[in-house]
Amino acid sequence: MQQAPMYVRTTYATGDPAKIGAALEALRSEAPGLLAENSGYRGYGLFADREIGKIIMGSWWESEQDRANSDKRLRERRAALLAPFADTVTFDNWEAAVYTQTPQVSAGAGMRLGRLEFDPSNGDAFVQTYRDVGLPKLEALPGFAGSALFIDRAAGRATVSLLFKDKAALAASRGPNSAVRGESLAKAKVTLRSIEEFEVVLVERKAP
């Protein structure tokens, strides 16, 4: 089924693991309300690696203009919320090309993130392959709870995130996920650059 694309801004922050708990609590309690005040807001995800000291979060928007407008309004408060923890902060803008409509996860669930590169001329074929080949097989994995493919077509970059209902399901999926990943990426002619795993702190998605 063809989906209307949504537009996502991700923030990737690293810092002292001893300070991550307070930062996550501040973001969990305040960010959704701040985001919801902006036109076109459609969702928010907050994920953490508490051991190493990494936070990744993403906000979902109906249009590129909604995303840009919200960034101007929120950047100062976002910086203030991250400042007690973050030593490095990186921002990226993406098209959400393929995604699960209503991820069924709660705090403490698991997320796996793959970072990918591809020939920009191959972007449409990559999206189609993920939708038709990779995703159906991933959805059959025990404990699967959701997925999203974020893509920057011009730069030839993408991320694939997979949500699992708990940490045990995330761990058990590593082998089967590897097999699906190898087949799908070879068929799509896409290069995998890294894989990371995170704890789900918060995921919310507004109905269209």
Write up this protein.
The chain is an alpha+beta fold. The chain has a single domain, classed as Alpha-Beta Plaits, CATH 3.30.70.100. The protein is built from five helices and eight strands, in the order βαββαββαββααβ. It has an eight-stranded antiparallel beta barrel with strand order 1-3-2-8-5-7-6-4. Strand 2 and strand 3 form a beta hairpin. Helix 3 packs antiparallel against helix 5 (174-188). It is globular, with a radius of gyration of 16 Å. It starts with 5 loop residues before the first strand and ends with a strand.
Descriptive labels:
208 residues, 8-stranded antiparallel β-barrel, 5 helices, 8 strands, globular
Concise synopsis of the structure shown:
The protein has helices at 20-36, 64-82, 123-139, 167-172, 174-188, and strands at residues 6-15, 41-49, 54-61, 86-99, 110-117, 144-152, 157-164, 191-205. The chain is an alpha+beta fold and 208 residues long.
Number of strands: 8
Low-confidence stretches: none
Distance between the termini: 16 Å
Net shape:
globular
Tally the helices.
Answer: 5
Mean pLDDT: 95
Q: Indicate the CATH topology.
A: Alpha-Beta Plaits
- Fraction of residues in helix: 25-40%
Give the ordered list of helices and strands: EHEEHEEHEEHHE
Broad CATH class: Alpha Beta
Which percent range describes the beta-strand content?
35-45%
Task: Tell me the strand order in the biggest sheet.
Answer: 1-3-2-8-5-7-6-4
Counting helices, strands and paired strands, the structural category is alpha+beta
Largest sheet: 8 strands, antiparallel, barrel
What Rg do the Cα atoms give? 16 Å
CATH architecture field: 2-Layer Sandwich
Total domain units: 1
